[in-house]
Amino acid sequence: MTRTSSLHSGRRGPIFRTLALCAAMTVASTGHAADTQPWLDTSASFETRAAALVGQMTLEEKAAQMQNAAPAIERLGVPAYDWWNEGLHGVARAGQATVFPQAIGLAATFDVPLMGQVATTISDEARAKHHQFVREGAHGRYQGLTYWSPNINIFRDPRWGRGQETYGEDPYLTARMGVAFVQGLQGDDPVYRKLDATAKHLAVHSGPEADRHHFDARPSKRDLYDTYLPAFEALVKEGQVDAVMGAYNRVYGESASASQFLLRDVLRRDWGFKGYVVSDCWAIVDIWKHHNIVPTREAAAALAVNNGTELECGQEYATLPAAVRHGLISEAEIDDAVTRLFTARMRLGMFDPPERVRWAQIPASVNQARAHDALALKAAQASLVLLKNDGVLPLPRNLKRIAVVGPTADDTMALLGNYFGTPAAPVTILQGIRDAAKGIEVRYARGVDLVEGRDDPSATPLIEAAYLRPSADSPERGLRGEYFRTPDLSGTPALVRTDAQIGFRWDRGSPTDNLLARGEAAPGQGIPNDGFSIRWRGQLLPPVSGRYRIEAAADDGFRLYVDGERVLDHWANSDRLRSDGVDLDLQAGRAYELTLEYYDAERDAGVRLGWRMPGAKPPFEEAVDAARSAEVVVFVGGLTGDVEGEEMTVNYPGFAGGDRTDLRLPATQRALLEALHATGKPVVMVLTGGSALAVEWAQANLSAILMSWYPGQRGGTAVGEALFGDVNPGGRLPVTFYRADQAMPAFDDYAMEGRTYRYFRGTPLYPFGYGLSYTRFGYSKFRLDAHRIADHGTLKVQVEVANTGKRAGDEVVQLYVRRLAAGAGDAQQTLRGFQRVHLTPGERRTVTFELDAQQALREYDDARGAYVVRPGAYEVRIGGSSADARVRSRFTVEASRD
């Protein structure tokens, strides 16, 4: 097999003609199969084969192949392929998969090797799932090998709802974690890619979500090159990422998905990018409809392709044949774009015998393997950040009762964030605490809704399996579910099983994913992504007599029957999880026939069945009572992906369109926290969420604070272990935590001044890189191998780190550099190295960093229009956070004599 070289940059018509000629020469020298289908000739390069295949296509067929849902071309043996797949922190929207901590939580590990292990595991599962889909004849969305991850936008403002998808606010940390993720996804085979990773969204894109389809970002060139571009450059040059995704918004007046400056000048000319560019979904529509850059669909499609976007997520490229006829683009440009795309597919092994492709041998059994679950737990443990501890943690083993209170304690969504797959057995934080408590009584009360004014079906406890049975003579507990391929319960069920509880939440596109019950429906069981229905039947067994409140909720329609009487009926589409309830007098000892019918129309799906028993106190009062009866209170609250995320249509107090308008905890939770504190019991706060929270009241009044992010399928286990000291928290903040009264720059202003630890001049609540431990670390024997270096030289830095406490733990050793003569608008300091080291009590280790002046000290110079290394005095700082310089030393950079 010949290792391929990729297409070079520039106008691409001549490239295609050269490759087509090479293909013809190859055909002349090979056997009969190559004569008829030269694109299957494995002795030729991937580019040559791709050009030969594209040369057989009509213009209309080529245009169709440039859209994410590319149809089959049966006469050429080309199968259908959808380029759209997600794998931000696990294979997403494709059924069962291991779910790791959300990207921001992975960044909090500050552990590059661990990130590589996580990405390798994701790509193992992705490959296994893809080949299983192919064996079943499935070629749809979320079933392929081209993954639209990672998101390496800079989390410049804590209000941005999608910041949870990123690796935080620092370009260096983002680059290091991003490169490791890409390399883990794409594999190390010299011939075949394991997957295609996609660096998104190039390049100045971080909110507001409500404006993303029409705003024009115009940062200074210095901010662009010093903050917004470095991670993308690293993924292209070091990670060899195969794909880059454009953004919705404009940058300097051009659509980011059709920008000559970003895609031609920077990406291909300056960085030498050899892969392909994909638009964000329906971003090409924005070019003519919202940005008004061109007047028609044809012109928008032509502009995007001419400026370097080969693949569209959307349907505007269907107009490319008309654009050719109107003279807006040449067919040669389209040929070259399609050739790039088929080169990528061939490099993934899609047109070669499976036995030739190393990655095609990964068995389906690897999906959700025990080792993957163990890695998810390890990543969750490493992501936890201890923000405060007055000595209450670790919790002692001689406690008799703990109260666990709060809206995200028993919520699976608090584990997942967004862009997630289906964990086999997710462990909520409540369950994790119960497991770790080992005999200590744990009393739970939800207390309040996540946010004020939200119709929150999860506020009602699910009906537990103990009170449900499929039939009078069944030994099982739960309800018998019949899963139909149709939206109206017609036909033969594709799946019949017993579900212990009815508590389901499916991410868009993955309705076979059960997030709460243990027995999932696998993709091969034929449940479609949309337009399905389920009927659950069985008996309800009330434990006490009295008046019950039974509530059902669904996205989309539901009907509930009790003893044959229809008591709830909402058989209609809904854009969210909609709930309703009925009050019924039920008697203990009697079995009531129960039927719940549900259907999903499209996109997100979910259904719940809950109740409140007779005599139940109001949730707030129940929580305070639980606190009074306990020795320690663990409050679990914060945010979930239901309120922060991507372009939402539902707004709540403190949230707008998925972004945040208030950095504090929601008002409901603040009120409950104050009531819990007033009981006089020590309160430990565990926060869930994907962004910085202004929790200065908690910092001043509570006993301990632990940030858990969205910790993935084993997040509850990790939190429980950390609270009881079975693991020692060692994560660090990848973002700055500000105070609630801190005046922030305008959200839509992309200037960096006043943002992130590099340019924020005030005192934060918690600085970037911050995190406590159950042990202590000391720094000594700090040395530089030189105190004067050339502007193209290197500097070796060493420091000895010792665990001076009584517990084993992890220290994240962080190296920052600052220029001593920095002026107004310059960064105060910049992270240029970090290592996470594990030390046992008394253990010492020498940590070494090597700084390359051309990378570590470069700054963009507006006057020169290039990066420069300025001569003069610099300072190296090493410590446990951006505000914790344990040791420091100066050195001088001398200008080269050319």
Defining key terms:
about 900 residues; alpha+beta; Immunoglobulin-like; seven-stranded antiparallel sheet; six-stranded mixed sheet; about 25% helix; disordered N terminus; beta-glucosidase activity
What is the CATH C-level name of the domain at 777-894? Mainly Beta
What is the CATH H-level superfamily of the domain at 777-894?
Answer: Immunoglobulins
Shape: globular
Total number of helices: 23
Tally of strands: 37
Q: Roughly how many Å is the radius of gyration? A: 28 Å
What is the correct CATH architecture of the domain at 777-894? Sandwich
Q: What name does the CATH topology of the domain at 777-894 carry?
A: Immunoglobulin-like
Decide which structural class fits the backbone. alpha+beta
| Fraction of residues in β-strands | 15-25%
Gist of the model:
This protein is an alpha+beta fold and 898 residues long. The protein is built from 23 helices and 37 strands.
